Amino acid sequence: MIEAVETLGKQVGVAEACRVLQVPRSSLYQARKPKPEPAPRPTPPRALSAAERARIREIANSERFCDCDPRTIYATLLDEGVYVCDWRTLYRILEEHDEVHERRAQRRAIKRGKPQLRATQPHQVWSWDITQLKGPRRCFYLYTIIDVYSRYVVGWMLATRERGELAEQLIAETCEAEGIEPGTLILHSDRGSAMRSQPVSALLKKLEVTKSCSRPYTPTDNPYSEAHFKTLKFRPDYPGRFDGLEPARDWTRAFVAWYNHEHYHSGLALLTPATVHNGEVEAVLAQRQQVLEAAYAKHPERFVRGKPTVARPPKEVWINQPEKDHAARPSAARPAASAGEPGAQAPSRAQSAASLDGDEHLATLERALDEADDTNIFLPKFEPELSKSP
Questions:
Q1: Residue 116: which of 325, 316, 328, 327 has the closest Cα?
Q2: Could you give the CA distance from residue 142 to residue 159 in angstroms, rounded to a whole number?
Q3: Phi and psi torsions of 286, nearest 5°
């Protein structure tokens, strides 16, 4: 308020400004006087000296008490017959030096980047992991390598222990069997002991295979291996516990054959992993399209959305796909599919409306406004036109 009086006083005078703003002139004059520096606060005779305060900090930060809070330090020393200060004073001394927290030198957590891997064809990215299968007295360890793009199990091994040497043997044999060229493959895994072992690291360096690892405690960074193991353990004939190593190996061999050649994978447009891995997609899709077209020709009225088009597998597969920048994309309307494109049902609404006369066009718009999904699209654009309707 004093600042407002000063500002207004430059234009209409101090007396008038104080009268209008109802501020006593004595308050204004008092505020204009320079304020004296505050007198230093006297140190009470009972205060701790600088040497005593330094000694208390040394005790609190010692190796013995660096993990203890001030209350514990106070109680421990008191039980030993030592009194240095009250625990509240100890809090204040530590607070002055920003030491009311963990006072030990700690190792900082390493921020690991999110792995982002992209595959557009087989033999670009492999994912491998180890799961346990229950045996009669102990667990067996199932090593599995799958191709991320085709979901094809390219290699597997069942052993009685988890060791880096066994993983090294499996990876080497699988790369040789699949004919992997140096510098063309990325091998992704979590951070298990076998994955981080020296034999595996040395082998990948020798084969010129790029090593990729998930972030610690982040199973979603290795989703394809995790999903594969879930499919394995949710099979109807999965026994839960095997009688021995050979029965477990026989069951796994049958499962892998079924998974690769008979399992219609939902992530592959209901194609089998072997079909995608072996490059037989186009032939299978062409045969499926012929079947759909024959069914459409026989009963077109049963296909309410028009001529059916067979689903296709994705062109690229990601581990942690980067988020798309929607702000950079134009906010144009979704393009309409032409009648000749796959999945096309009918011309777009804009094209249909253009072929109508004025009254039919207005009636179409009014019907569209009754649909909740389209209200926000049509109302702002056609509100002036609708307001003129009778």
A1: 316
A2: 7
A3: -65, -40
Q: Render 66-108 in DSSP notation, one character per residue.
A: TTS-HHHHHHHHHHTT---S-HHHHHHHHHHTT-SS--S--PP
The CA-based dihedral angle spanning residues 117, 121, 125, 130, taken in that order and rounded to the nearest 10 degrees: 120
Q: What is the pTM for the complete model shown?
A: 0.60
The SS3 of residue 373 is helix
**Could you tell me where the beta strands, DSSP code E, fall in 12-170?**
117-119, 125-134, 139-147, 153-159
Number of structural domains, the chain? 4
pLDDT (average), residues 87-104? 84
> Does residue 259 lie within any of the structural domains?
yes
Residue numbers of the domain that contains 9: 2-32
pLDDT digits (tens, 9 = 90+) for 151-194: 999 999 999 999 999 999 999 999 999 999 999 999 999 999 99
Computed on alpha carbons and rounded to an integer, the radius of gyration of the chain in Å comes to 38
Q: Counting beta carbons within 10 angstroms of the beta carbon of residue 207, is it exposed (0 to 12), middle (13 to 18) or buried (19 or more)?
A: middle
